[in-house]
From TrEMBL:
Keywords: Kinase, Transferase. One of its GO terms (cellular component) is cytosol. The lineage of its organism: Bacteria, Bacillati, Bacillota, Bacilli, Lactobacillales. It catalyses: GMP + ATP = GDP + ADP. This is Guanylate kinase. The keyword Kinase applies. SUPFAM superfamilies: P-loop containing nucleoside triphosphate hydrolases. Residues 93-267 form the Guanylate kinase-like domain.
């Protein structure tokens, strides 16, 4: 989310456009009182920025917020001499750890809820697959580099699968949550490791029925040996269901229902 501070530093003309044209903000105190499109409400969607705008004739300061939909909302009017435009620093967001068996839909739901840019990316010693991009799908490193980073205490959590190592750097979590919520697809053990170093973390267990899970993996083209191996772990994965903060059942063909549940969870933690 682009804050007003960033806009001011990079494009003064754009700031003036926002203030004077797009929202037609008032120039006097009386204009402000008569403006209908500023909603006098303290219930907002995601706040992008807070701005103070001086009304010079009346010496009043108008405070309003720009929200996610880029509309201004009234906060307060105060008498004073503040003449600077400023932005409230974004608060650290919550990290949501999505946990569940392969084929449960957790990766898709994470992307749909938060967006790709808010995914906490893992570092791995695994070789890149076709179409995978370093820095977008994973950070690909060799085993020696991974070991050196581990010795330096860089990782918030580590895991292994198929003779490959996976880890999430603490700095990656801090970077993705510094301006809002983010998500990571991890195991339950990984979540516990992360929680110790990053307390502002919530766990969401996402699962599908055994039948739906198998069908999901078949439809996406997973090789038979991999399907068989992961289904063998299904019951073990389900043991963590009641240990997580939230549980979402993802029925095949009803992804939108699961998405709505996760969105409500995120809203609840605002």
């Amino acid at each position: 989310m682009e804050t007003l501070t960033k806009i001011i530093k990079t494009d003064e003309e754009r700031l003036n456009l926002i203030r004077n044209l797009v929202f037609d903000l008032p120039k006097t105190y009386d204009d402000f009182l008569s403006l209908d499109n500023l909603q006098q409400s303290r219930t907002f969607s995601v706040i992008s920025a807070i701005e103070e705008l001086t009304i010079s004739k009346s010496n009043f300061v108008v405070k309003y917020v720009l929200t996610e939909d880029r509309r201004p909302h009234f906060l307060s009017i105060e008498k004073g001499n503040i003449s600077t435009t400023w932005s409230k620093p974004d608060e650290e967001g919550t990290l949501y750890c999505l946990i569940g068996a392969s084929g449960s839909g957790k990766t898709t739901l994470g992307y749909m809820t938060f967006g790709k840019k808010k995914e906490v990316i893992s570092t791995t010693t695994r070789k890149p697959r076709k179409n995978e991009i370093d820095g977008q799908d994973y950070f690909f490193v060799n085993p020696r580099c991974f070991a050196e980073m581990y010795k330096k205490g860089k990782y918030a959590e580590i895991d292994s699968y198929n003779n490959n190592y996976y880890g999430i750097e603490l700095s990656e979590i801090q970077d993705k949550t510094k301006n809002g919520d983010a998500y990571a697809v991890v195991t339950y053990e990984g979540y516990k490791q992360i929680k110790k170093l990053h307390p502002k973390t919530k766990s969401i267990f996402i699962y599908s029925s055994f039948r739906d899970t198998r069908k999901q993996m078949v439809e996406r083209g997973d090789p038979y040996w991999q399907i068989s191996k992961r289904l063998d772990l299904y019951e073990k994965d389900m043991e963590n269901k009641n240990k997580c903060d939230y549980v979402v059942e993802n029925h095949l063909g009803k992804l939108s229902d699961s998405l709505e549940q996760i969105q409500e969870i995120v809203k609840e933690n605002k």
